[in-house]
Amino acid sequence: MARILILNGPNLNLLGTRQPEVYGATTLQDIEIMCTAHAPSSALAFLQSNHEGALIDAIHAAKGAQDGIILNAGAYTHTSVALHDALASIELPCVEVHLSNIHARESFRHHSYIAPVALGQIAGFGALGYLLALDALHAHLHAAV
Ligand code: DQA
Questions:
Q1: Is a pLDDT exceeding 90 seen at residue 82?
Q2: CB-CB contact of 69 with 55 (8 Å)
Q3: Ligand 1: distance of its center to the CA of 145 in Å?
Q4: CB of 74 closer than 6 angstroms to any ligand 1 atom
Q5: Helix pair angle (52-62, 81-90), 10° resolution
Q6: pLDDT, tens only, 33-48
């Protein structure tokens, strides 16, 4: 049974009401329900925080406790060397997710500090991106066994 942490960063607690024209009408709770239904034989843990340090603590705690991470770091994607370093330190596979296509938006969203320490990035598919990330992580973990 794969143990996967689904970690969401700042402002993602507001999904559903936050700029629905960009991020859709699906709430974070809806996404968690969708993920649980999509991966019934995995042990999923969910955490959302608006605080960079709390996200870093969660990444550290995942070492030895989880098999992989799905991370939407929100705006910290574009700013946080500390999140990059945390992921680089724990040697767990991580799939980066964004609801919106960050490469088709403002130039400050084009750079990701997460991408170099992620298996890959899924962006632009809305809530479906989390399910695609689960499939990608499962495929990676299965191939690694
Ligand atoms: C986001 C994209 C980021 O640029 C933005 O700051 C977010 C959400 C996304 O899921 O599309 O908060 O990560």
A1: yes
A2: no
A3: 32
A4: yes
A5: 10
A6: 999 999 999 999 999 9
What residue ranges define each of the domains in the chain, with the CATH number in brackets? 3-144 (3.40.50.9100)
Q: Name the residues annotated as catalytic.
A: 23, 98
Residue 78 contacts residue 103 (beta carbons within 8 Å): no
Ligand 1: atom nearest CA of 105 is 4
CA 44/CA 102 separation, integer angstroms: 26
Residue 89 CA to ligand 1 centre (angstroms): 24
Please name the residues in contact with 132: beta carbons below 8 A apart, sequence gap of 6 or more: 122, 125
Query: Does 144 score more than 70 pLDDT?
Result: no
Could you tell me the two tokens for 74?
A: 């929100």
In the predicted model, what is the mean pLDDT of residues 101-106? 98
